[in-house]
Amino acid sequence: MTITLEQALAIAGSAVTAITFLVGGIDFLIRRWLQRHRYELVLTLNQQIATLHNETHNRSAERDTALHDLATTAATLANTTAALATSSADNTSLNGANADLAGKLTEANLKITDAAQRSHAHDTRVQRALELEGALWTQPTMANTPKFVPLAERRTPVVSVLNLKGGVGKTTITAYLAKALSRQGYRVLLVDLDLQGSLSSLFVSTLELARLSKEGGRFLKELLTPDEKGKPGNLLEHTLPVPQLGPHARLVPTTDTLAYAELSETVKWLFRVGGKEKKWNGRRDGRMILRRALHRPAVYKKFDVVLMDCPPLLNLCCANALAASDYVLAPVTPSMKAIERVTPLIKRVLEVQSDVNKHLRMLGIVVNNTRHKGLTDQENDLFLALPEQCLTIYGHDVYRFDTSIPNRVAVRDQEKGFDSENEDTDLRDTFEQLANEFIKKLPGVCRHPDERIKAKKPKTIGGM
To answer: What are phi and psi of 370, to 5 degrees?
Structure first.
C-alpha cells in the first residue's frame, strides 16, 4: 500500500504531536519528581544544617568550656608553679637551715665527746690522785717548772721548819730563832704556812689581822692565788714589817682563810687547771708558787735567811715550802711518839728530793720542850736509836743540834704575843746558842751581815 505525501505528513504530524505530548508528560513527571525530591532534599539539608548548627554551637560551648577549663588549669598551673618556686626557695632555705643545724649538731656532738673525754680524764686523774694517797705532792715535776736557783747563786738559804707531828714547837722555834738571827744583823723573812696562822698571831694582833684581811692583798692566800692573767703575785707586796724582830725583818702572814685558797689550788693541781682559759694547762705546777716567788733576785737579795713555819702535814703549802727550800729544820720533843715521826719525815724529804727538789737536805733536829736546859739521861735515852734509823733511811746520820730548848714559862707566855721587851734572859741566851749553831751549819756561800756592813762603810781618802 502506497502512502501519500499528505498521509505521510499527517502521520508525521500526529507522531510529532504524540511525541510532543509524551515529552511534555515526561517533563511534567520529571519536574514533579524533582520538585518533590528537592523539597525532601531541602528538608533533609535543613535538618542536617540545623544539626550541624547545633553541633557547632555545642562544639563552641564545649570549646569555651575547654578554654575556660584550660584557662583555669593554666591559672592553677601558674599558682602551682609559683607555689613550687616558693616551696623550692623554702626548701633551699630549709636545706640551708638543716645543713646549719646539722653542723651545729656535729659541733655539739664533738663538744659532748670532748667534754666526756675530759670528764673521763678528770675522773681518771682524780682516781689516780686518790690512789696516790700521801704521794700526791711528790709526783715528778711538770714541764717548764720554775728554775731552782742554786744556793751558791742566791746566797740566801731557805729553811722549812717542819715536823709531821703537831705540838712540837715549830712556830715557837721559828719565831725565837728569827729573833736571835735578827740580833746578829741578819735580814730575816718569815713565811707563815700553817692554816692556823700561829706565827702571824705572835707578831700581829687579831684586830690588825682582821683589818688587813678586809683590805686584802697582804696575806699568803693572795700570793697562792694567781691574778686574772694567771701570773703569780709579787711576794714583797704580801709582807708586813715585824718591829719585834728588827727593822729588816718581814713576815708573809696568814689567817685561817688560807684553807680556802689552798683547797682551790689543790683542786687545780688535781685537774691541772690554770690560767685565764680555765682549762688543762701542763705548764702550771701548783707546788712551785713559792719557788717562783722566793727564787727571784728582788727577793733573795733583800733577805739573808728565809724561815718558813710549815703545817704538820704534806699539803699544798708544805709541798710549796719543800719545793723552794734548801733545808729542813725539824723540831722534836723528847717523847717516843714525837721521835717516831722523825723517820717518816726523812722519808718524805727523800721523796721530794728525788722527784721535786734535788737540792733539799736535812739541816738537823732541834730538841724542844726538855725538862732542863740540857737533856736528862732519860730524855737522852729516847734518842739512842734515832741515829741508826736515820742512817738506814737517809744514808747518813742526821745532825742533832747541841742546843736544846727547855720547857719554860717564858716560852708559853710568848704564845700570847711576842714581847721582845720583856724577854727572858736565859731563853734569849739559849736561842743565841741555837742561832750560832744554825749559822755554822749553813755553807760558806751564804750571805753574812758583815759583808753588808763593810760594803756600807765609806772609803777613806789618803788614809784619812
So the answer is: -85, 165
